[in-house]
């Protein structure tokens, strides 16, 4: 990355102030909160996220707008030409193109999401205004290590000497390693539960740090875990201390933030026609044990408020911990219908997923495809709450099918 960026004239040194976001869960939601709060304040923010769900352009927002097809094509061709055929990954060339776009268009901030890990990630070539590490859990162990300490060490690789960093809610083992790395590089850490906190009280979000207390509306995004993600964003803004961003802007941003495939209830579309009237259709791309826990908790709480049977339509990749994810739903889901994610070479076969679900005490059956799975789910009485889940790659296909859109054809590890 450093060699290619040097050939391109170092666009990574010509960026607006950068908020660099790493972590296992909550990165995308934290980025979304920051982006919407800044928009509420009338600021222009670049944003870089991955993977995309339906269209590749989702990855690169330039001054708040999705990058155009013409600009994306020209930038990628420029990077390929300068690279001169040398080995480079899909994510590296994409990141270089994004940096070029961001360096050529004025904006107030760049919100930059890490692709994988942190220490060796292609994005880790910048000098951030502030770093953010969201909740860490087990994921990508084949690259990051098989303990929380090892994974946290890789994520903490984005911490920079003398720079502030927001540390979200963490398991003790992960937090200890982040603190160790932070001390070594002399980063200034602002740690959840120690230097700041966010929690729900009387139907409001309360944020508290040394500057005082904020009484805010609950986020529009569903689930108790979104209180933590919103807290990450608010803590970041408090450290930035930009007078252009007021408490009113934070409140407005929390109410307006949307983020597809994160406990998203699907409205009218092609897929809703396949399920009976009165049922609910939900989508979530969470795919690791921590995501399974918060998702199961969210749907358990939803059931307490409005009871109806939960039917899961579940697909997953073999790079994920299948058993730990589905085990979270024991006693919560009434049925699990498994599918093989189409056109993904790492997809777990539907019959293997069904075996795993049964091993955790869940009633499971297979379906040949998504449409068939939804029809099978529709036989549940009374009208069910249907949750399609287990993979962002499955979520992308669901959104494309629901909106009758054509997906950008990038699959597998390349989409990371």
UniProtKB/TrEMBL annotation:
Domain of life of the source: Bacteria
Keywords: ATP-binding, Folate biosynthesis, Ligase, Magnesium, Metal-binding, Nucleotide-binding
Gene3D superfamilies reported in the protein's UniProt record: Mur ligase, C-terminal domain, Mur-like, catalytic domain
Reactions it catalyzes: 10-formyltetrahydrofolyl-(gamma-L-Glu)(n) + L-glutamate + ATP = 10-formyltetrahydrofolyl-(gamma-L-Glu)(n+1) + ADP + phosphate + H(+); (6R)-5,10-methylenetetrahydrofolyl-(gamma-L-Glu)(n) + L-glutamate + ATP = (6R)-5,10-methylenetetrahydrofolyl-(gamma-L-Glu)(n+1) + ADP + phosphate + H(+); (6S)-5,6,7,8-tetrahydrofolyl-(gamma-L-Glu)(n) + L-glutamate + ATP = (6S)-5,6,7,8-tetrahydrofolyl-(gamma-L-Glu)(n+1) + ADP + phosphate + H(+); 7,8-dihydropteroate + L-glutamate + ATP = 7,8-dihydrofolate + ADP + phosphate + H(+)
PROSITE patterns assigned to the protein according to its UniProt record, in alphabetical order: FOLYLPOLYGLU_SYNT_1, FOLYLPOLYGLU_SYNT_2
EC number(s) from the headed UniProt entry: 6.3.2.12, 6.3.2.17
Enzyme category, top tier: ligase
Metal-binding among keywords: yes
A Pfam match: Mur_ligase_C
Sequence ranges assigned to domain Mur ligase central in this UniProt record: 21-236
Cofactor: Mg(2+)
SUPFAM superfamilies from the UniProt entry: MurD-like peptide ligases, catalytic domain, MurD-like peptide ligases, peptide-binding domain
MF annotations from Gene Ontology: ATP binding; dihydrofolate synthase activity; metal ion binding; tetrahydrofolylpolyglutamate synthase activity
Pathway named in the protein's UniProt entry: Cofactor biosynthesis; tetrahydrofolate biosynthesis; 7,8-dihydrofolate from 2-amino-4-hydroxy-6-hydroxymethyl-7,8-dihydropteridine diphosphate and 4-aminobenzoate: step 2/2; Cofactor biosynthesis; tetrahydrofolylpolyglutamate biosynthesis
Domain Mur ligase C-terminal: residue ranges: 279-391
Gene Ontology, cellular component aspect: cytoplasm
Any one biological process term the GO annotation gives: folic acid biosynthetic process
Purpose of the protein: Functions in two distinct reactions of the de novo folate biosynthetic pathway. Catalyzes the addition of a glutamate residue to dihydropteroate (7,8-dihydropteroate or H2Pte) to form dihydrofolate (7,8-dihydrofolate monoglutamate or H2Pte-Glu). Also catalyzes successive additions of L-glutamate to tetrahydrofolate or 10-formyltetrahydrofolate or 5,10-methylenetetrahydrofolate, leading to folylpolyglutamate derivatives.
Protein name from the UniProt record: Dihydrofolate synthase/folylpolyglutamate synthase
Biological source species: Aestuariivirga litoralis
Lineage of producing organism: Bacteria, Pseudomonadati, Pseudomonadota, Alphaproteobacteria, Hyphomicrobiales
